[in-house]
Batch of 2 targets.
Target 1
Amino acid sequence: MSKYEGPVTKNEVIDVTIEDLTHDGAGVAKVNGYALFIPKALPGEKIKAKVVKVKKGYGFARVLETLAESPDRIEAPCPIYNQCGGCQLQHLSYGGQLRFKQKQVKDVLERIGQLPNVTVHSTIGMEEPWRYRNKAQVPVGEIEGGLVAGFYQERSHRIIDMDECLIQHEKNDHVVTTVKNIARKYGIRGYDEEKHRGTLRHVVARYGKHTGDIMVVLITKGQELPNKKNIIEEIIKEIPNIKSIVQNINPKRTNVIFGEKTMVLWGDEYIYDTIGDIKFAISARSFYQVNPEQTKVLYDKALDYAKLTGGETVIDAYCGIGTISLFLAQQAKQVYGVEIVPEAISDAKRNAKLNGFENVTFAVGEAENVMPWWYAQGVRPDVIVVDPPRKGCDEKLLETILKMQPKRVVYVSCNPATLARDLRVLEDGGYQTQEVQPVDMFPWTTHVECVVLIEKK
Ligand code: SAH
């Protein structure tokens, strides 16, 4: 028996109305103020639900029957939507998703950032929100002795074979299926996570949407890849536009995909892609935005908010391979980029050279340590752009921004909660959040990306 005595009990069947969605896309119903989370239910819907878990302040339930449907509900276009877990919002119309993301940002800015009056624009969506990903990372395993490659069944480590993913570019689907068939033909063993045995752990396909370049990465448990020569020859024969075949070795018991060692098996170490007028070299392990069409929209917005006139000094913190830095360098006097991954900075330097930029300086290190050092050297940026990972900006970095006193900060965020927390710090330090532009980088998933303009009061 559960000790908790609240408005609901486990296994109770109850009729509720859904009021909202959580950040991970579950419906929220309130029973006398008590929150019930109900996966796959949509706001406005009346649901007959069965309570499956009861905690102290909130519980979980599952849909038994939908009594009244939301006008935004659609049939999930993907046949494996319910097993896969890669997408979370295929039961919600695309328009509904864009509204959900805007509201998500608004609510979080109000709740965590105490910023109830900031303008949050409508989410900029895609005209054709399918097949947008330029990178596929597909786990390989074995079922009853046969090699399979596809996706992990939701909340498990069982790999289900798959040849088609509706948010993946067709080229990548073709590459993965082709490599899978070649691996089967040559008797390559899929990796067995439990026994830590087998050869092929992942197949990664990268596609330069604007150049057509294709890269294949075979991630293996050890150095050895039986029939390597034949496999390479067949990949070249079967995949037109292949520019690079790379092997990466990951001998560890881990769910991290890439290992430390990378070898080029055939072709170049890099493929190329362009965003706007700028060309980027992308290596097997580099971070590069996965939705190239929306990346352009996102970077254009960041550049727009930076309001550069040609004379400015700009810092791009968390710069990756220098994508935003080079966008800024087109319109600034001097750009400084900082990033923690050394390979990304060598790519960034290569990209600056490739495009003939001489007004960018890149440094390897933690942005929170490199920025104070720049400050000590006398660097006084007019504009600071930050694009941190999900955990947001380090406190020390925010302190340094306040010391540097730029006219403007442009914050590119993939997590509204940490964005809101950081905006509060900047607000308390004399800055004002002017406007927020959500950009849909990941249609059919709950991921929310936005660009924010912050100015000195
Ligand atoms: N602006 C780039 C990359 C953004 S992703 C782009 O649009 O492509 C965030 C980046 O921050 C990653 O490249 C990650 O390696 C880097 N990073 C994470 N923690 C960091 C830190 N403390 N200091 C500097 N860079 C960091």
Target 2
Amino acid sequence: MANDILIEIKNLSMYFPITKGIIRQQKIAEVKAVDGVNFFIRKGETLGLVGESGCGKTTLGRCLLQLIRPTSGEVYFEGVDLCTMASDHLRSIRQRMQIIFQDPFDSLDPRMTAGEIVAEPLRVHTRIRGRELREKIAELLKIVGLDPSMTERYPHQFSGGQRQRLGIARALAIRPSFIVCDEPISALDVSIQAQIINLLEDLQGEFDLTYLFIAHDLSVVRHISHRVAVMYLGKIVEVANRDALYRVAKHPYTIALLSAVPIPDPIVEASRERIILRGEIPSPIALPPGCNFHPRCPIGVEICQKEIPSLREIEEGHWVACHLA
Ligand code: SF4
């Protein structure tokens, strides 16, 4: 593994069994939420992970952090496979890997003050107490743009954007090197979204952070990502540097997603064609044979219904899972 790589996942799968029976449970099917995924994230990089709701991106983020133990595959953090690691050892590594959730209101305990929320990881993982702890909390609140005088407030006394800042302060408290940002701006007003993106970018530079930034559309990740991975029904279908992906996307699914991203130039916007995909996303319980995307693909050919396309590097750093790419 190259030494500029912080995270590498190999052939990662997460299948959730569907069972019947109460006493003797019998597996009758499985949901393939994540299915044989491979990618890496370099130190200090932001990898955007994009896909429609239910494509498995949140499950993938949680498997990466081992919040859910994957069904199979490997997750390397600084060259060490987390999937084979015992729980107590994993706990110490997890301090360096944090998560920021989509809805900060759901993820913050409403009975705890802002100060208690930020202090919690410090109490669990460090020996910082008393005055030093209070100073640390004030410093963290300041770093994320909150006034330290807000320490005694409860989550409901903050606005949505302020709550997300609080969630970021909590994630930063024990100085992680990697953060999964799980749709951190989806629940926020458009006017606040840019502020949170800017904050995350500033923090990345200041604290040398590496991000997996999950979002459901390509317009959100464009600004913040160095590279972008596109996910469809549990599989990565395209990975490329941001500029290459937005300029010359190769996978028909990525091209369709890009056609929905607004372009600021009104003349270009008026002249381009939006690609509407036919049909619904197939159920992850009954995946189609061959390429997962073939029932909706506008350019599919016969082989697509029989053979699963592998993720191939078609240009340096540009990976695509399509027979026709
Ligand atoms: Fe479309 Fe075939 Fe490519 Fe799948 S492999 S995206 S069905 S062309």
